[in-house]
Amino acid sequence: xxxxxxxxxxxxxxxxxxxxxxxxxxxxxxxxxxxxxxxxxxxxxxxxxxxxxxxxxxxxxxxxxxxxxxxxxxxxxxxxxxxxxxxxxxxxxxxxxxxxxxxxxxxxxxxxxxxxxxxxxxxxxxxxxxxxxxxxxxxxxxxxxxxxxxxxxxxxxxxxxxxxxxxxxxxxxxxxxxxxxxxxxxxxxxxxxxxxxxxxxxxxxxxxxxxxxxxxxxxxxxxxxxxxxxxxxxxxxxxxxxxxxxxxxxxxxxxxxxxxxxxxxxxxxxxxxxxxxxxxxxxxxxxxxxxxxxxxxxxxxxxxxxxxxxxxxxxxxxxxxxxxxxxxxxxxxxxxxxxxxxxxxxxxxxxxxxxxxxxxxxxxxxxxxxxxxxxxxxxxxxxxxxxxxxxxxxxxxx
Length: 398
Ligand SMILES: [Zn+2]
Description:
Largest sheet: 6 strands, mixed
Bound molecules: zinc ion
Strand content: 15-25%
Structural class: alpha/beta
Mean pLDDT: 83
Distance between the termini: 33 Å
Low-confidence stretches: 1-13, 16-29, 352-364, 375-398
Number of helices: 13
């Protein structure tokens, strides 16, 4: 449904800044901002009218199945869990109920719902010449282990399979590591920040000690300013989150959506959702950045899939299609292909991944030029593998 221009300018006011300005008076005419304990909320009805989309709110404690979702926007009362366009997504703040109305935080309308529902309208979205692929871990940092192998090797293999796919689409590809060596997290971010019109895609596999049956994909982008991360347990309205945000978080959300819908659409793993975190690589990158967790090494069936090179090739192909969809957003001016579309498509034509292994080198010459050779020298291992806690939080079992 086309939106009147007036709406768009109001939207710019609402989304442009969370600071209170005189423009809020105009916004109030379209967006009925409701104050609850000093925080700004918008009603679900208001959101539904604005987007011209049906919105469903299910009772607190109800399970929503993303695969069965026939509503573009589905929320759970009292929860941060949502399904947006058929993929699970996590709000920063829970949906609250007041005077018979369901309310969603203004932060989430601006920072979660808008870039997921209309990623094609995000400023500068899809501007990408270089894809910086970041295979997680390396060298002494093995990442997580399964009986079949180490996360660092699986992640590197996916990146190597993905590189020629992206190059074939005319994209420049830089790998933060090309072999089994350790690259500090800040160097990985620096590589992305030094490349022109780059996006950063960090590839990892998941693990948990809490639940041997935990499975599925999840993708992270940087937590917005003033908001808690998805894994933060306490999200009381009065909690204050002072950490800085990112100037490109809307682009990162759009990138998350494009990659996640493709990966979930092509590989039928459990949908854990589009999440937020303050992992170092997401915090330190100044360009659109995501970190994808491609299944659990601690779960029997999924660890076996991950050890299969054909499955990893399919995964690389799906990430590649997601990146291509991100690049196409400003051209097509419409939302990316969604999980349900991919699943329909997949029945007739499965992903053909171009499997073409990259050669193992110490480090790409252009990288050395970019960040200097000393950056790649192995860091002495001074502590226990507690690194993980800074890079990856415990998974949330929905
Ligand atoms: Zn990892």
